[in-house]
Amino acid sequence: MKAMILAAGRGKRMMPLTATMPKPMLEVAGKPLLEYHIKRLADAGITDIVINLAWQGEKIREYFADGSAFGVSIQYSDEPEGGLETAGGIVRALPALCNETDTFIVINGDIFTDYAVHDLSRLHLLPGEAHLVLVENPPHNPDGDFPLAHQSTHTQAYTFAGIGLYHKDFFNGVQEQFVALGPMLRAGLAQGSVSTELYLGQWHDIGTPERLVEINNAVEHTYVG
Known about the structure:
Elements: E1 2-6, E2 27-28, E3 31-32, H1 33-43, E4 48-53, H2 57-64, E5 73-78, H3 85-97, E6 103-108, E7 111-113, E8 130-135, E9 146-147, E10 157-167, H4 182-191, E11 194-199, E12 203-205, H5 209-219
Parallel strand pairs: 1-4, 1-6, 4-5, 8-11
Antiparallel strand pairs: 2-3, 6-10, 7-12, 8-10, 9-10
């Protein structure tokens, strides 16, 4: 199985830290967020990784190169200035993600978590399906994003962790252009083609400079691996 790490976003809320640096290269305990994801994927035996690039993408390419120094093989999916949003970026990367298998993992590059990604590789999806990891709502997202798949849409919503497993056919008909993933996931939940799980372990969305400071203080320069 292959994995894609989303790293093309502009990171406007992280300014001025992202003025000359892509958000997933911001550091927690002295290492870029991306490096934690790559290490966890490698530890799970997932060594074929695709990273999409747009804003300051050359910084990522320079640091990780082909991935061999980190025990993985990295391919890069270059996007135009401004990126293609989540779904559009995934569609552009599909040829690299699905030349051997029909399912793949996608992880947001700007989160910090100890989620065991090897659990996703054990799941079997039918064509057109997707599986999402949800977490309890943090203070900055009190209303959540999605309910659990077996719940009514009018019950408790949880926050999308930015971690998911997708069958390539979930993106059938989606064009390689600026397309958001959220509406597709909501439609899939309503249609029964998207399953969910609730993860109660460590998870942080590094969305603002203040949250970056908070997680660095919490980690206290210890590696979570």
